[in-house]
Design brief:
The chain is of the alpha/beta class and 227 residues long. It is built from eight helices and twelve strands. The chain has a five-stranded parallel sheet, sandwiched between helices. A hairpin with a 3-residue loop joins strand 11 and strand 12. The protein is elongated, with a radius of gyration of 19 Å.
Amino acid sequence: MNFAVVEDSRSQAEVLKALLKGEGHQVEVFAEGKACLEALKTRSFDCFIIDWNLPDMEGSDVLKHVRQTCGWDVPVIFCTARTDEEAAADILRAGADDYIPKPIRYMEFMARIHALLRRRKPRGGTLAFGGIEIDLESRRIRLAGVDVDLTQREFELAAILLQNIGRVLSRDELLSTVWARDTGVDTRTVDTHASRLRKKLGLAGESGLMLSSVYGQGYRLDTVQGG
């Protein structure tokens, strides 16, 4: 998943980034709220971690813009040095899903992240990433507005990759998810289908997305800056 960390403390932001990347997530750090809002014009994020007090604007203003731009299904967690009950109520009333008091206890932080992601509603309908648009209900996928002809398994593999951008998915996980009812297939099947998708959907960067093989682990689909 793709996380946005909005935190002006560089050391704090780097620790959070390392924790999340250790779980296979993609992380982009912003030292100011305005930089995050500017990024939202061209990029999408699956979860936001925001400092309540930022140097250029209030964290609540960042949250308001996130809700207007990304909707209410995207999890938002605030980090704050204020630990009083009134502060907690203000943060939650503003539309945050949860908050973490500073100094951050990192095991608790990751546990809260996992809990939020478990509760997150599965995404349905139409999703758009870079030049790719996928309709999960009608099972159609387009590249630059043109329908792409995929087999059933190719579509299912594309769907799981697109719903987990920035996350490393193991070959065994992909095999058990996409080919659960098939017998006599092995991880080489995943490699073959991944190669086909890379060509059909421009996943070497042409579409704004890059499908990479992570040595010894599996595959990861990432957005390409400026794509």
